[in-house]
Design a protein that fits this description.
- This protein is mainly alpha-helical.
- It has a single domain, classed as Four Helix Bundle (Hemerythrin (Met), subunit A), CATH 1.20.120.10.
- 68% of the residues lie in helices and 5% in strands.
- A two-stranded antiparallel ribbon has the order 1-2.
- Helix 2 runs antiparallel to helix 3 and helix 2 packs antiparallel against helix 6.
- The longest helix is centred in the first third of the chain and has 26 residues.
- Bound molecules: ascorbic acid.
- Ascorbic acid binds next to helix 2 and helix 6.
Length: 152
């Protein structure tokens, strides 16, 4: 790397810590939306099983729970300062105004998802059903507090 380029990279890191992993707010917004969307798809498959809409299959439940577990940590890296705008999104200002509360909600969700993974691996239907219920409440409570109308 040429020294000039190294300097540019260093300055970029110093000036834009929040966007360090994203080139633009739009990229951050699309990343977190993508992560939530894929996470929701795999969580829904688990919920369909525990609600009896799809047959319970312990192997599939474990695969879906592991995916949810891996995906759950991703979106929250993409709510840095200045990522409230840049692409259409449903984040409320409270995400940034009540950052500590948002962080706590995110951490609770990740912890609940950890228990979901353990429950799926355990193979007991009722334990899994209870864990899906806890995670679903975790999703909903964060949506109630931090997700609003779509804005441009
Ligand atoms: C899902 C999904 C969510 C949650 C939420 C639970 O399957 O995509 O966002 O469950 O609806 O309340």
């Amino acid at each position: 790397m040429k020294p000039r380029h190294a300097t540019a990279v260093l300055l970029g890191c110093l000036c834009l810590p929040a966007l360090a992993q994203f080139q633009t707010p739009e990229a951050a917004i699309k990343y977190r939306q993508g992560a939530f969307s894929v996470m929701g798809a795999h969580f829904s498959r688990l919920a369909m099983m525990t609600q009896g809409i799809q047959p319970f299959d312990a192997k599939s439940a474990t695969e879906n729970a592991e995916l949810v577990g891996n995906l759950a940590r991703l979106p929250f890296t993409a709510f840095g300062p200045g990522t409230d705008k840049g692409a259409p999104n449903r984040s409320r200002d409270e995400v940034w105004k009540e950052a500590a509360k948002f962080k706590a909600a995110a951490e609770k969700m990740v912890a609940d998802v950890g228990k979901l993974e353990a429950a799926a691996k355990g193979g007991d239907f009722e334990t899994l059903k209870a864990a899906v219920g806890v995670v679903g409440k975790s999703c909903k409570s964060c949506h109630d507090d931090f997700r609003g109308a779509r804005r441009e």
